[in-house]
Amino acid sequence: MWRIALRMLFGNRGKYLSLVFGLTFAVLLITQQGAIFLGLLTRATGPLQNVVQPDLWVTDPETKYIGDVRGLGDDDLNRVRSVAGVAWAEPFFASRALVELGKPGDRGSTFKTAQLLGVSRSTMVGRPPEMTRGRIEDLRIADAVIVDESSRSKLGNVEIGDTLKLNDKRALVVGFGRAKLGFESNALIYTTYDNALRFVPVSRKAMTFVLVEVKPGFDVKEISVAIGALPNLAAFTTKEMRLRTIGFILRETGIGINFGITVLLGFVVGLVVSAAIFYQFTLDNLRSYGVLKAMGARTPTLVAMILAQSLVVGLTAYGLGVGLASLFGLLNNATPNSELAFVFPWQLMVASLFAVLACVSLGSLLSLGKVIRLEPAIVFK
Fold first, then answer.
1. How far is CA 295 from its chain centroid?
2. What are the Cα distances from residue 269, in Å, to 21, 25, 47, 262, 360?
3. Which of 243, 270, 326, 362 has a C-alpha 20 to 30 A away from that of 302?
4. Share of the chain above pLDDT 70, in %
5. Which of 183, 188, 186 is nearest to 130 (CA)?
6. What is the dihedral of CA 202, 67, 168, 158, to 10 degrees?
7. What integer best gives the mean pLDDT of the chain?
8. Per residue in 114-160, pLDDT tens?
9. How large is the angle between the packed helices 299-334 and 286-294, nearest 10 degrees?
């Protein structure tokens, strides 16, 4: 029976290819948009992608996500350092800055908004994950900055030794690093915490975060609770801060709704295509099903034949759709300075598999109903 079902399926090549191509488009839409959505959520976590040294991020208790914080002061830093079990606590600065490109007043003069990150001068906690040119120690030079490699083109293809005009102040480029960009894909510039305070006009409480490492033998959660007991302070692990940021993006912005509608549209397209073509395919082969029923084939056997046909179509379309989405992701991630975020974990592959199987299963319901009600006498009409 399985061989007969497959021969019926492949015998009508036009409808078979229509089913496969329609479902392939649906799988591609679901997986591609899902991967871009996950990529945007990852980028929304900002410095959390690049700063891996600390166990805890200390900030104001009302902080909802990584990009919206209330500044801390030097007294807050000292209070955190006084907590038993804290190995070290270092300041971290994150803010936007304006970079002038060209001479002011020139016809071609323009500017770029950059993400400025200030790290501890002594320990360099929060530094770029990877240096491509130059030395991280050169960041201690007065007015020195390190530019992210993918941001060079945004800043006029600067070289080591060039100077940038950063908020009307001189900034000397001493090296290049490689780091992941943030949600807005602004140019990424690193400097020391002290230099950052000179580059960006700030209030009395200018510290964005206090980065903390816990001493060996101490429980991170207990230290987090101890810091949270201090007035106007809260400590979060990297995972907690990431989930806090992603939760804010999903609740407070329309990103989740927009991508959710697109993914749902892909599911609906797959469902409609599979339902319509499968039903027409069943009508074309109704006499064949009638012959099988007249020869003694039971209804469950015919139902299993239709489900087998739908499973073959679904798995074929799934392989093609996921393959095209993966190819798109590889080409995107291999493109230098790509502005499109693309994250394709195995969980998304499993979810898209269940989605396409649901499409073909629901789409075959009309066909199943027609076969179940089929009378063998149709053969003689």
1. 55
2. 11, 9, 38, 11, 11
3. 270
4. 94
5. 188
6. 150
7. 85
8. 999 999 998 999 999 999 999 999 999 989 999 999 888 888 889 99
9. 140
222 and 85 Cβ atoms separated by less than 8 Å: yes
Burial class (CB in 10 A: 0-12, 13-18, 19+), 60: middle
Backbone torsions φ then ψ of 163, nearest 5 degrees: -115, 140
> How far, in Å, CA of 64 to CA of 365, rounded?
46
CB 281 within 8 A of CB 31: no
- pTM of the prediction? 0.80
DSSP symbols for 215-249: PTTS-HHHHHHHHHTSTT-EEE-HHHHHHHHHHHH
C-beta atoms surrounding 132 within 10 Å: 12
Amino acid at 10: F
Contact 150, 178 (CB under 8 A): yes
Domain locations in the chain?
A: 2-44+255-380, 56-236
Listing DSSP states for 299-351 in one string gives HHHHHHHHHHHHHHHHHHHHHHHHHHHHHHHHHHHHSTT--------HHHHHH
